[in-house]
Amino acid sequence: MLKIDTHQHYWRFRPEDFPWIDATMPALRQDCLPAHVAAELNAARVTGVVAVQARTTPDETDFLLDLAQRHDRILGVVGWTDLTDSTAPAQFERWSGQSRLRGLRHILQDEPDVTEWIAQPAVRHALDAVQRAGWVYDVLVFESQLPAALRLCTRHDAHWLILDHVGKPAIRDVADENVPSDAWRRAINALAALPHVMCKLSGLVTETAWRSGGGLHTRDVARMVASFDHALERFGPTRLMYGSDWPVCQLAATYDVVHGLAAQWAKSRLSETEQSAFWGGNALRCYGIELPKSDRLVSWT
Fold first, then answer.
1. Confidence of residue 179 (pLDDT cuts 50, 70, 90)
2. DSSP labels for 79-91?
3. CA distance 250 to 292
4. Can you tell me the distance from the alpha carbon of 125 to that of 63, in angstroms, rounded to the nearest whole number?
5. Could you report the per-residue pLDDT of 38-53, keeping only the tens digit for each?
6. What domains are there in the chain, each with its CATH number?
7. Where are the beta strands (DSSP E) in the chain?
8. Structure confidence at residue 211 (pLDDT)
């Protein structure tokens, strides 16, 4: 079965580029490159990955595209550029010949006011240009920011948009057993009603209560599974895709744990045809990925 991990990050670690990575995150305070996750990807029989931006710096997209040129299993790149810059659409031309560039993303969750950011005329103009170029836009927000994300997704409907990490339902340190919350469910319902929006079942392990000894609390696993189930109910099997969020996931769980959770969920919920879509087909269709020749996809090195 074709298996694509639609959400991996790569970097050469420099503290100034990652102010959010502090001394409590040793697993991330180092270079994180394809070779460092190769064994895990081979073990999980992952065919290829989508490399997603992790830095909001001008060279981020070119850095990821360069990695993709050297690693055939990086099937697509979701890069970054400053969409608040009125000249951004003109700058897209320099990437017009880069077939591995399949989308863009901004770390919306870090914006103090997401509503204000997406309302900027330059951003609206740039997102229109992104969709005209046939690129996907990945939407990264916390649960509390989902109403703003809905406004963005409603306004820009000319091409695919992807909700990262199931909209990050609040899981960590929540005493209420009603998790995911009613507010998150309503927002997911509204987003799923938009036929051009897809959803990644990714990144939820880092929304849990991290345990010093590693591993996931059974309560948190149940909450993640409930989130996956609701996403399946609303988006359906043709608009969901797998992503690991490596290496960030390592703050809470190893790659094999993240992959194993998704695999167990998919096997228990989806038919064989639906599993094929979840693991690879939906990503091919949404990102518009072209697979290299099969003899160049033998194993990760």
1. confident
2. E---TTSTTHHHH
3. 29
4. 25
5. 999 999 999 999 999 9
6. 4-296 (3.20.20.140)
7. 4-8, 48-52, 74-79, 101-106, 136-139, 161-163, 197-201, 240-242
8. 75
